[in-house]
Write a structure and sequence with these properties.
The complex is a heterodimer of chains A (79) and B (228). Chain A has helices spanning 16-27, 51-66; strands spanning 2-9, 39-45, 72-78. Chain A is α+β, with helices and mostly antiparallel strands and 79 residues long. Chain A has a single domain (2-78), classed as Phosphoribosylformylglycinamidine synthase subunit PurS (Mth169, Chain: A, 2-Layer Sandwich). A three-stranded antiparallel β-sheet of chain A has the order 2-1-3, covered by helices on one side. The termini of chain A are close together. Chain B has five helices and eleven strands, in the order E-H-E-E-H-E-H-E-E-E-E-H-E-E-E-H. In chain B, the strands form two sheets. A nine-stranded mixed β-sheet of chain B has the order 2-1-3-4-11-10-9-6-7, sandwiched between helices. In chain B, strands 5-8 form a two-stranded antiparallel sheet. In chain B, strand 3, helix 2 and strand 4 form a beta-alpha-beta unit. The chains are: A alpha+beta (79), B alpha/beta (228). At the A-B interface, helix 1 of A face loops of B.
């Protein structure tokens, strides 16, 4: 099964990369884009019978390794 | 006195540290490969700078799972002095041996230059020979040294006097203008609760000989020699 893990900076953490991208988009004329937050995306192929077990495994590695809980949040989707 | 210098794939200050400890300070040292599970009787452990595992995922995020890190954690828990320099500091943060995390530098640039550091506390094995408020000129070389911890953690670090080094002006004033990478409270280095684990972003091993610009880093490595 495939698990998708999204890692994003916590809202309280400043994202200078996102800000730089937003500025570039403004320069290109995209005035309606107010803010950009950059994150990470992982696809994990996991053996398992139940979506719940796969989700648990993905969440565990997301919290242990893929995200740094001091500054990042993570979210898991199973397909 | 024997130093263990841990070598991860991608460490690049391991030999500088080895040179500073052995050739300059006249101590014994051994390079320990990250897959080793024995510190070979070392009295001090140094996690050197570099780009362990190419900084993939996050700086230090993968190195912290290296087999040798279990020995380093045991050594630290037993009270052994551990110094994390630059990437070594990032590994200690990821390993949970020190609190907080690193963000990209505030201007998103890799910064390689000498900075002014103020020694805030002298009761750690790595600042024992320094005096409180002493200014050191030591180079930094990093892209992710913008220290962050939540406000309650910063407050605890302040109360417990665990902020060991700060970036300052040439006269020792803490000022946002001299906070080179944007770190919270101008933090350049901290220690753990038991004060035996210290991490800092600047490179003392690159400031041990006048020929390369400064000898101010020696006091950090010399302190631990006197500490045991």
């Amino acid at each position: 099964m495939k698990a998708k893990v999204y890692v994003t900076l916590k809202p309280s953490i400043l994202d200078p990369q996102g800000k730089t991208i937003a500025q570039a988009l403004h320069t290109m004329g995209y005035d309606t884009i107010n803010d950009v937050r950059q994150g990470k995306f992982f696809e994990l192929n996991i053996d398992g019978d139940s979506a719940e077990a796969v989700r648990q495994t993905a969440l565990e590695v997301a919290e242990r390794v893929l995200a740094n809980p001091v500054i990042e949040n993570c979210r898991v989707e199973v397909e | 006195m024997k130093f263990a210098v841990i070598v991860f794939p991608g460490s690049n200050c391991d030999h500088d540290t080895y040179h500073a400890v052995t050739d300059v300070l006249g101590q014994k040292a051994e390079l320990i490969w990250h897959s080793d599970t024995d510190l070979r009787g070392a009295d001090v452990v140094v996690l050197p700078g570099g780009f362990s595992y190419g900084d993939y995922l996050r700086s230090g995020a993968i190195a912290r799972f290296s087999p040798v890190m279990r020995c380093v954690a045991d050594f630290a828990r037993a009270g052994g002095p551990v110094l994390g320099i630059c990437n070594g500091f990032q590994v200690l943060l990821e390993a949970g041996l020190l609190p907080g995390s690193m963000r990209r530098n505030k201007r998103l640039e890799f910064i390689c230059e000498h900075v002014n550091l103020r020694v805030e506390q002298t009761d750690t094995p790595f600042t024992l020979k320094a005096s409180a408020g002493q200014l050191l000129r030591i180079p930094i070389a990093h892209g992710e040294g913008n220290y962050y911890a939540p406000p309650e953690t910063i407050e605890k670090l302040e109360t417990d006097r665990r902020i060991i080094f700060r970036y300052t002006s040439p006269t020792g004033a803490v000022d946002e203008m001299w906070n080179v990478n944007g770190s919270v409270a101008s933090i350049a280095g901290i220690c753990n609760e038991t004060r035996n684990v210290v991490g800092l972003m600047p490179h003392p091993e690159r400031a041990c000989e006048q020929e390369i610009g400064s000898t101010d880093g020696r006091i950090i490595l010399e302190s631990v020699i006197g500490a045991l």
